[in-house]
Amino acid sequence: MEEQKINRINELYRKSKAEGLSSEERREQKLLREEYLEAIRGNLRSQLNNIDIKEKDGRIVNLGEKYGSKKGN
């Protein structure tokens, strides 16, 4: 996510605590937060998909292949 959008999320948060937000600003804040969470989830999913674990029987298993998809699904 772009630094500018993260800064805007923080700006809206500070304004919401100080003076409140207009309905348009609340919608913007909600959309930005959803986008931020999607980016976080995508990054975490990507990291987990690239982790290999060694099973007790000695096999190496990729978590993405075992629990999901290597493509980030």
UniProtKB/TrEMBL annotation:
The keyword Phosphoprotein does not apply. It comes from the Bacteria. Pfam families: DUF896. Gene3D superfamilies: Helix hairpin bin (1.10.287.540). It is found in: Cytoplasm. Its main location: cytoplasm. Keywords: Cytoplasm. GO terms for cellular component: cytoplasm. Belongs to the UPF0291 family. This is UPF0291 protein EBB54_09360.
